[in-house]
Write a structure and sequence with these properties.
Layout lengths: L10 E3 L6 E3 L26 H21 L3 E5 L2 E5 L1 H10 L3 H30 L6 H15 L4 H16 L3 E4 L1 H19 L3 H15 L12
Antiparallel strand pairs: 1-2, 3-4, 3-5
Helix pairs in contact: 1-3, 1-6, 2-3, 3-4, 3-5, 3-6, 4-6
The chain binds zinc ion (ZN).
Zinc ion binds next to loops.
Length: 226
């Protein structure tokens, strides 16, 4: 595997418009070099990527608790009131013969958010420790999280669909419970966390190791640090 990174070549790319240009000192009065095309501030890596990812991730993990413990659905009918959490909904679908729906809700609402939180935490920890452990697999995990992101609203869709179906069938009034707000926040915060993570951080320690093996005497101060 042989490649030259933009940093090695003394180049920097613009986050906003993608324009690749030579690195230079910032102009007087400016903290950062500006893009020659669109004038955005240039950075070698997304600034404070790990700190921002951690902040959003911790917020999402905290909200994951009320999202699962508080009711997401409140049903008021002639028989009485009922509050359902995600898990009690899954159990309800399972016992009432809607096994496929139970599986979809379980995967989309409990398993996937948990996996996403775990994967992003793993990416953050390994990048923070400048680990060179399995970079290709970690890049794949990152792509997986990005890919799942666009399906994250699936569970909201399932809840909406259920509400619509149940409304249609019976004389019940169904409203979203506080758990639904917490759950929506978990989904959005996790998406934002994965957007803040700069996947190039996975490769920086790997490239740095390689660079040091090739030029053991050279200082690595020109290389991007988080
Ligand atoms: Zn630009």
């Amino acid at each position: 595997m042989k490649y030259v990174t933009a940093t090695d070549a003394g180049l920097i790319s613009c986050h906003a418009c993608g324009h690749l240009q030579a690195r230079a000192r910032p102009k007087a009065g400016q903290a950062h070099q500006r893009c020659g095309r669109c004038n955005s501030p240039l950075h070698l890596r997304h600034p404070d990527s790990l700190m921002r990812t951690w902040a959003l991730l911790i917020a999402a993990a905290l909200l994951y608790i009320p999202a699962n413990l508080l009711p997401v659905m409140h049903t008021a009918s002639l028989v009485g009131d009922e509050d359902d959490t995600i898990m009690s909904g899954v159990v309800y679908f399972w016992t009432s013969g809607d096994a496929p729906l139970a599986v979809i809700v379980f995967i989309a609402s409990i398993l996937v958010p948990m996996l996403k939180l775990t994967v992003i935490a793993l990416l953050c920890i390994t990048s923070q420790r400048r680990s060179t452990w399995r970079p290709i697999e970690r890049s794949k995990l990152y792509r997986l999280v990005e890919f799942i992101g666009r399906w994250s609203m699936l569970d909201i869709f399932v809840v909406t669909l259920t509400v619509a179906l149940v409304r249609f069938q019976s004389l019940a009034v169904i409203t979203a419970g506080p758990g639904a707000i917490a759950f929506g926040s978990v989904v959005i915060l996790t998406m934002m966390a994965s957007m803040q993570f700069d996947p190039r951080l996975i490769w920086d320690p790997v490239d740095e190791d390689k660079h040091q093996q090739q030029h053991p005497t050279q200082h690595s101060q020109d290389r991007p640090h988080e």
